[in-house]
Write a structure and sequence with these properties.
InterPro entries: Gal_mutarotase_sf_dom (IPR011013), GH-type_carb-bd (IPR014718). One of its GO terms (cellular component) is cytoplasm. This is NDH-dependent cyclic electron flow 5. One of its GO terms (molecular function) is glucose-6-phosphate 1-epimerase activity. This protein has a nine-stranded antiparallel beta sheet with strand order 10-11-12-13-24-21-20-15-18, with no helix packed on it. Strands 8, 9, 14, 16, 17, 19, 22 and 23 form an eight-stranded antiparallel beta sheet that branches. A five-stranded antiparallel beta sheet has the order 1-2-3-4-5, with helices on one face. Helix content is 11%, strand content 40%. It starts with 24 loop residues before the first helix and ends with a strand. Strand 6 and strand 7 form a beta hairpin. The protein has five helices and 24 strands.
Length: 394
Amino acid sequence: MASSSIFSPKVKSNYIFSSPSTKSLVSLLPSRPIQYKRDFPIAKVASVTYQPINDEYLKEEFSGHGVTFEGIGESCVAKMETENGSTASLMLPSGLITSYKAHMWHEGTVELLHTSVTEADDEEDAIIQGGISLPLTFASDGGQEPWSPTAWSLHNVRGSPTNTITIEMISNDSEGKIRLKHIVTLERDMLSSELVVSNSKSSPLQMFGGVMSHLTVSSPDAIYALGLEGSTFFDKKPIDTEFVITPPRYGDQSQPGYGQVYGKMTLQALVETLGALNQIDADVAQSRSSNSEIEEDGEEGEEDDSYKQLTDEMCRIYTCAPRVFTFLDRGKRNSVTVGRAGFEELYLMSPGSVHEFYSKYAYILVGQTAMLKPITIAPGDEWNGGLYIHNPNL
């Protein structure tokens, strides 16, 4: 079961996380920058128990400014809406941005983010993935355990529906030495996710990870990335975090392309084939998660296409790429401009066109990241960065 709406009646307040192990995280931290392993460590969250959210308190304290609150079990959804009809929704305390519906030239709205809600094995919980998330890990000297933010508290709401609406969330480590602010801003034609990191430790702080956004598409077959020609990149395996969606058969060279199957089979045979492939997804996913070996870098390459079609599955980290570029969806006849600040790397993953149109895997994953080389924040310093999604279709 998959759904693009966070308000699915199946949604419960619990989340099932499957974060990769951090057993090797400390060993990945180098004594010299040149020795960095080119892989992304994420602090393990074996089980997250959120404190119940008092949505009535949030309504009394923060309502207005174009923001409303709705309780869902022990969680809460905050919805932002501007006068022209653009909306954005985020969940507390997870901090996951689940929806961005942008106002279009035809006076309607179009969902630009891709969110999946699926039933867990016990059929009482739900797994929520996609949207915009912050898979981050912080590490410092002194043998201290790495830390990742798992829960966010609402700190402030400001602005108005006529112009700009801002929600500010905070998350601190247990010692209070690392302070994170996540600032989500909705404008008439843009959604931004900004991260502010303050280091009160006596030693430098290293930040891995970034801001990951799932952009919904008709099919990767119809998506073109404009403006990446000349950018340098490394091919990588997809990252594995609790909110990121990755097809369980990613990298399986034996699976046929969707277009290839359709051209050679009857419709009934195609349906049967896709059904059989889907049945083995769980087994393949389990096998993949049990393999904890770190993959070495692919060879460095240079993008040679200024109008790159994302038909084939791919996962790349661009180390030198424009800070602003555009995705064109010929299936939906719209475009999205994505920009970044603070981060030097661009993460781009396409699940490929093997999957059914408008399915759980009809998305493009774009990240503004520090995955090949962490960002270092000096003692007493503050760093900020993030991404924005601009809607040019007004």
